[in-house]
Amino acid sequence: MTESRLRRAAFLCLLLLSAAAAAAPLPEESPVPGGVVILKLGSNRHPKPKVWFDKRPVMVIDHQGDWTALVGIPLQTTPGSRPVEVFQDGQKVTVEVEILPKEYPAQYIKLPKGKERYVSPPAEDLARIKRERKILGKILSTWSQTETVDTDFHLPVHGRVGSPFGLRRFFNGEPRNPHSGLDLVAPAGTPIKAPAAGKVIDTGDFFFTGNAVFLDHGQGLISGYFHMQRIDVKPGQKVQRGDILGTVGATGRVTGPHLHMNVYLNRTKVDPELFLRRHLKTAAK
Ligand SMILES: [Zn+2]
Question: Given a cut of 60, is residue 16 above it in pLDDT?
């Protein structure tokens, strides 16, 4: 091939790649506490806007030629009008988004004997929890300014949905934080696969989550994998969709083996099903 032909071929490849990235499916929109609001902010012929919500930066990607913001809505948000700040062309515009009410069901969990410390942790565990909260806060504040973000999440394990996101939880009758993610039930030892391309932010053994892996997918989109039996990746490692992160286990606050998956946008836990629904339908068959 001549040099110009090579260059043309490379250019075509790039075009195809960027077309594929632009067509990656977005999560399902759900303007409720724990949901995702999708804001279309005009053609990509204009400069890329910067978007803020609750004093935190928000993901903005080029989706099919439009600047598109994906805003994570915290579970504790009171329904009603909420301001999203958009900075573009040296101007600031406040966009009001309407958050609708959503009542999440209650769930009552009985932790077996020997696991009571997960309901009312003793002093030494409380000290550990406090230490770990700092580490987890740092992990979740990760922001990488990537041009594209792989929002095309596939199932990390082919399990049935155990507990969905958002359940108001009671452990041995005591009210505790709501369920922060999605539980996929699979036997211990089942490989857990990266749902999309990303980079390992950190791994560790934390009090509540047990063995955990956190992936950075870019611009504040982070996924977390909890209660793992084995961790097969290292901090800083790049992963592609389908790469094995480790295996399903029963470490941390659990009653049996399953994968608990969290998804975060703008440092907010959102419902992972919004990213996975397409695959959950087929997996349930
Ligand atoms: Zn869970």
Answer: no
Q: Which of 237, 153, 253, 155 is nearest to 203 (CA)?
A: 237
Range of the domain at 53: 25-99
How far apart are the C-alpha atoms of 137 and 154, rounded to whole Å?
26
Regarding whether 252 and 162 lie in a shared domain, the answer is yes
Centre of ligand 1 to C-alpha 178, Å, is 10
Residue 162 CA to ligand 1 centre (angstroms): 8
In this structure, which residues have their CB less than 5 angstroms from ion ligand 1? 183, 260
Q: Separation of 240 CA from ligand 1 center, angstroms?
A: 24
- My answer on whether 89 and 114 are in the same domain is no
Residues 68 and 118 in one domain: no
Residue-wise pLDDT for 72-87, tens only, equals: 999 999 999 999 999 9
Residue 26 Cα to ligand 1 middle (Å): 24
Shared domain for 195 and 253, answered yes or no, is: yes
User: pTM of this prediction?
Assistant: 0.89
Number of domains in the chain: 2
Distance 100 CA to ligand 1 centre (A): 24
Tens of pLDDT, residues 218-245: 999 999 999 999 999 999 999 999 999 9
CA of 130 from ligand 1 middle (Å) equals 20
How many Cβ atoms from other residues are within 10 Å of residue 283's Cβ?
15
142 and 279 fall within a common domain: yes
